[in-house]
Amino acid sequence: MRDLSYDHVPYRMSEIEHRYGENVHIVANPFLLGALATLCSKETRQPAINRLVRLLYEDLIRTVMNHEFPRRRVAVPTRMIDSSPQAIFEGEVVDRQVRAVTVNIARAGAVPSQLVYDLLNETLEPSLVRQDHIIMSRMLGENEEVVGAGIGGMKIGGDVDDAFLLFPDPMGATGSSLATAIETYKKKVPGKARRIVNIHLIVTPEYLRNMTKAHPDVRIYAIRLDRGLSPPDVLATVPGTRWDEERGLDDHQYIVPGGGGFGEIMNNAYV
């Protein structure tokens, strides 16, 4: 007889209650919230910044794989097989035969995407994993507010047919850059992705509204929701209950409480 305990492995992700829809997942994890708070602190500098970004994304991509990726059952002999014919682990694991593409949205996405790429290669069949690169910049209006995003260059290594298309970009502020990148893949890159997943450290209500409107099929994961400029009575409600009144961006489209521009602080380049 074999042990059936791991034939079907349930995965229950801890997330905060909200009203943003079933495709939005705000992870409820005290450890990650603490690490993110340290990352966003004014006193935190390099090399601690990039180390914390890696720590946070290691946990996030594992969460995404557990929650989104398909499974398969394996039977793997252990080192005890020579002395006992029962020394075989049988159970459900993440399916290695899955295509995945991670997209580096330069510059804040460079470190997260590289980490995600490395972990995907450890988990999946490496020949099925790819990293693409898109250089984007915010377009500013007369008052230095963000009015859109432009693509300065791309390195896309093939189609995305039946692949998990992942965008590990730390800050979901307005959503303009990411919405443009996703639209590019949908319209100009051959194949239809199996699933599109945005993976963030922080998101705002404005980002969630814009992204779910532009691309309602996209799954969104984040460690923290920042809506610090909302009225006090709105802050007392479950997130998303009064979505139109929630505000996490100041007049220059920076996140509050936020953590400063992650592209700047991760690269020590304040331009």
Automatic annotation (TrEMBL):
The lineage of its organism: Bacteria, Pseudomonadati, Myxococcota, Myxococcia, Myxococcales. Residues 28-231 form the Phosphoribosyltransferase domain. Pfam families: UPRTase. InterPro entries: PRTase-like, PRTase_dom. This is Phosphoribosyltransferase domain-containing protein.
